[in-house]
Design brief:
By secondary structure, the protein is an alpha+beta fold. The protein has 6 helices and 9 strands, in the order βααβαβββαβββαβα. Helix content is 26%, strand content 46%.
Length: 212
C-alpha cells in the first residue's frame, strides 16, 4: 500500500524555499538529500483495457535505474492518496519503449493484468520528464520521504506543467503524513492535489479527443 500527500506548489520560487527550509535540518537525514532526473512512460492497450479496469502500468527511469510499476485501487481525498502497487527493477532500458507484461508475472495482480490484456500490445499513452529533489524525514512516529517535483507531463495534445510536493509514508502512521503536510500547506500556501500526474495527463487527452 502506497500512502502519500500531494500538493501543488504555486511557483518554482516556493519550491526552492521548501527545499532550503531550515526546519528540515532538524528532522531530515542529510545524507539522503539528492536530486534525480525522472523520465516516466505510462502504457495501455489500443482499446484502453488497463484504464477501464483502474490499472496503471508505468516504467520510470530514475537516474541510472529503470523501475516498472503496476498500480491499482487508487483513491484520493484532500491531497491524501492511497493505492496498491508493485515495483520491479528492470535491467533492460528498452523496457521504457516497449515493456513486456511478464515483468509482473511473479505477483497476483501482475498475472491478473496479463489475463486482462491477453495478446494485446502495450503502447505508450503519455510521458513525463521532471526533476525530483528528495530527502527522508523522521516525524512523529514515522519515516517518510519528502519530494519536490518540477517538470512536464507530455502528451500528443500538449504539455501539463509539474510543480508539486509529495510526502510519502515509508513506515509509521498515516496521521503523521497528514500533520506534516498541514504544517507545510499553511507555511507555503500549498494547494491539496487530488489528481495524480497520470490523472492530469489523462484529463488533457480526454479533453483533446473528447473522450469520456
Amino acid at each position: 500500500m502506497e500512502i502519500e500527500m500531494k500538493y501543488t506548489i504555486r511557483d518554482k520560487e516556493t519550491a526552492e524555499a521548501i527545499w532550503e527550509d531550515d526546519y528540515f535540518n532538524e528532522i531530515s537525514d542529510a545524507s539522503s538529500r539528492e536530486t534525480v532526473y525522472m523520465k516516466s512512460a505510462y502504457f495501455d492497450t489500443e482499446e484502453g483495457i488497463l484504464l477501464k479496469n483502474d490499472v496503471a502500468f508505468r516504467v520510470r527511469m530514475e537516474g541510472n535505474k529503470v523501475v516498472a510499476s503496476l498500480k491499482w485501487n487508487g483513491s484520493s481525498s484532500e491531497g491524501l492518496h492511497t493505492r496498491e502497487e508493485v515495483n520491479v527493477p528492470v535491467d533492460d532500458p528498452a523496457c521504457f519503449l516497449e515493456p513486456s507484461p511478464e515483468i509482473f508475472q511473479e505477483s497476483d495482480q501482475g498475472r491478473a493484468m496479463m489475463e486482462l490484456i491477453g495478446e494485446e500490445r502495450l503502447y505508450s499513452i503519455l510521458e513525463m520528464n521532471f526533476i525530483r529533489r528528495r530527502f527522508r524525514v523522521d516525524y512523529g512516529k514515522s519515516i517518510m520521504e519528502l519530494a519536490i517535483d518540477t517538470g512536464d507531463i507530455l502528451t500528443t495534445c500538449g504539455e501539463v506543467p509539474i510543480c508539486e510536493l509529495e510526502i510519502e509514508l515509508f513506515s509509521g502512521e498515516q496521521e503523521d503524513v497528514i500533520v506534516l503536510g498541514d504544517i507545510l500547506k499553511e507555511k507555503y500556501d500549498l494547494i491539496p492535489l487530488d489528481a495524480s500526474k497520470y490523472a492530469r495527463g489523462l484529463k488533457l487527452l480526454r479533453e483533446c479527443y473528447q473522450l469520456k
